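Protocol step 6 of 9: fold each sequence in the batch and record its structure tokens directly after the sequence line. For illustration, a two-sequence batch is reproduced in full.

Sequence one:
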Amino acid sequence: MQSKWVPPGIAGTGFGPLWGLPVRGNTSSLVPSVVDRVLKVPDLASVAGMQLLSERYAVSGGPSTGLNFLGALEVAIKTARRPVTVATLICDRGRNYSPTYYNRTWLAEHFRRHGGLAALDCWRRAITYWMSGTDKGGVDGVEGRSLLNYGSDECGTLNVM
């Protein structure tokens, strides 16, 4: 199967083979038998989630933390019973990404083909707006509405493989 990973994408990262040097795009950290759900998340949506977690909640993580955050929100909205509790992992410290995923100049250069800063800022607005619970018509837009569908409607589906 051909890899759909494109630089500087986040998808497909991991620890590489169990023995030997890690290979970008291959992972041994995924055990398919324990996976019950897979979500397609644009790279810049993950970066937006990561940045918002840091700015609003003082939770500093990397792009995989942003990905997990958005995944947790998706699971929460699709869970019928209320209240709902969803746990996720913060995989690494955000300070490791200061020169890259927290740097707008780096993001503009490396994610130009995925919509650049305009797409990043759109995802930041979409996540913030969706989390506020208010849709464009002034009605509750959170109950039952997918964040990823909302963001894709607002920002396009750039880099969704």
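Sequence two, same batch, same settings:
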Amino acid sequence: MAGTPVGPIGWFRKPAPIPDGVFQERVVLVSRGLVRDPHDDRRQCSYGIALGPFRDRARCAGSAITLSFRVNDLLTVEGVTKRFKRRCVLERASFSVRPGEVLGVIGPNGAGKTTLLECLAGLMPANAGEVRFRGRPLAASDRTQALFYLPDAIVPWAEQRVNWVISFFARLYPRAEFNAASLMAPLKLDELLESRISSLSKGERKRLLLALGLLTSQPLLLLDEPFDGLDLRQARDVMTLLRESAAAGRALMLSIHQLLDAGRVCDRLVLLSAGKVVGEGNLSELQAQAHLPEGGVEEIFLALT
């Protein structure tokens, strides 16, 4: 059995570097129904809990279990389900978010995009499923450490002035990759600094909210309809900022109903229809799934739904 043993029960980590996007295998020996946490050999959990997230990819032989998982996922969503009484709004949604990518969740109005983001942010309890951050289960109460969620069409601190809320966020997140001054020109906020937030138009408020999201420092930023209310030039400028944020290593997850916008800014897409994930991947992967080698995002979505 090749590898370097870690901990008294024996998690094995392969010493060779793992290529991006492949599955790494680890072998664990079960002792009295307990296995070690793969990230901290001082912690133990039951056999069933350890195996649960990897059940479909586990091979068992006596007391040894081989687990395989994607090593470059920042956030892994497994089987998230949300029901409102008898209506199922999300049905076993599963996908992953990788560091430094812009992931678009696309679908028509009513597909479950906002509900999905609220479940991931911990604002709405899911009926089933699991969220893992860097391979470890992420409780709803801990989500704010890993991600920042920016809802659509909110009006925070309505009677405060724009410069106050920007300064507040800059002090709250001093280690953010963007500073407030660098966002003024591209988001055209310098002319709004003395305005009260309640007086802003829809597009002005959207630009302010995007600035607040970019001023945060969590590894993952969730944005609900980031281009809604923006004109063509403003949307292009925002796309540039989002690409710069991803290039610096931050992951961004955007819910978008305009397929053209999604195709312009996203590295990969999650296609959501009637609460179900019907496709995930980059354009070429989605073309293969839809059997449309020359298809665009719109044609692929229609083919898969």
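Proceed to step 7 once all outputs are recorded. Observation for sequence two: The chain is about 30% helix and 30% strand.
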